[in-house]
Amino acid sequence: MESIISVNAIHKAYKKRKSKQIFTAVSNVSFSVMKGEIVGLLGPNGAGKTTTIKTICGLLVPDQGTVTINGFDSVRDRKKALRHISAVLEGNRNLYWRLTVFENLVYFAGNRGVPKKEIAKKVEELLTLFQLHDKQDELVNNLSRGMQQKLAVSVAMLADTDVVLLDEPTLGLDVETGYEVRNLLRHIAHEQGKTIIISTHDMPVVQDLCERTIIINEGEVIANERVDQLLRLFATSAYRVEVKASLTDEQQAMLASRFPIHHWEADTLEVNLDQEQDIYKLMAILKQNETPIETINRTGINFEQVFRKLVNEGVTS
Ligand SMILES: Nc1ncnc2c1ncn2[C@@H]1O[C@H](COP(=O)(O)OP(=O)(O)OP(=O)(O)O)[C@@H](O)[C@H]1O
Fold first, then answer.
1. Interface pTM, i.e. ipTM
2. Boundaries of each ABC transporter domain copy (predicted)?
3. Which of 9, 20, 48, 210 is 20 to 30 Å from the Cα of 3, by its Cα?
4. Residues spanned by the domain of 191
C-alpha cells in the first residue's frame, strides 16, 4: 500500500504563558498512514494528540521534523500539501450557529472551492448521506450536539479531499448517535476510499472502526499496531478463573499483590497475565490456599484494557 501521510520525527514545544517554562508537547513522533486506512490516534489527556493533528493539517509548524502529504512538505509546499486534507477540529465550533444546516453547507461549499454549478448537487448528496434533510432549515444553534457533529463532519466532506482528520468526533454524543457517526465514517472510508485519522478517547471507536492505532503518551509514540493484532496479542494472556468457594479478603489481597487482576467477584477473578505460563503459578497458589478451581477460561479483551496496559506499562509485548 502507498503511504499518503508521513510524519517524520516531529518535535513541538510550547512556552507556558505564566511560568515561561518550555514544555515539550510532542517529541520525535513518527508514523505513516496508508491510502484508505482508518487510523486512531489515542492517548490520555495532554498526550499530544491535538498537537500532532494540528501539525499534520498545517495549523502548527513543528520545531523540528517534517510532515509530508502525498509527497508535499506541509511547510515548504503548504498549499499543495493542504489541498489533500480536510479537518474537523473542536467539533461544532467551526459552524455558523445563526445559519441553518442548508445555509452552512452552501456557505462552506463556496468557501472550500466547490464550483458554483456543482454546489446544489453536492449539498443534496451530503444531506442525504448524513440524513440531515429534515433538519436542513433548522438553525445550527437549535440542533442537538449529535446533529451539529454530523453537520461538522459533512462540512469536512464538501471539499472531497483524500484525507479527513477528525479531532474527537464522538465527544459528548449519546451511544446511538456515536454509533451513527461511526457508521458514517466507515462508509466514507470504505465506499469513498478516503483516508481517515481520528483522535479520540472513545475506545469503541477504535475497536470498531480503526484498522490501526497510534498511541501517544507524554508526547511520544508508544504503540503503532494493527488493532486486531493488539487485541490478539493481549487476549492470549487474559483469563477468567472461577473458584468453588468465595475468596476471603485476605486471599484477594494476596492474589492482587502478585497478579494484575482487573476484575473481582466473590468467586471469580479476571486477570491479564504478563506471561502465559503465569496461569500455572496462579493455579498453584489457589491450590496451596485450598481454593478449588471450578473453571478457567480465556476471555475476550476489550480495547480499553489494552490501552490502559500500554499507557501504564508502556509495553506492546
Ligand atoms: N498553545 C499551547 N500553549 C502551551 N501549552 C500547550 C498549548 N497547546 C497544548 N499545550 C500543552 O501541550 C500538551 C499536549 O497537548 P495536546 O492538546 O496536544 O494533547 P491532547 O493529547 O490532544 O490532549 P486532550 O486529550 O486533553 O485533548 C498539553 O500538556 C497541553 O497543556
1. 0.95
2. 5-243
3. 48
4. 37-53+83-226
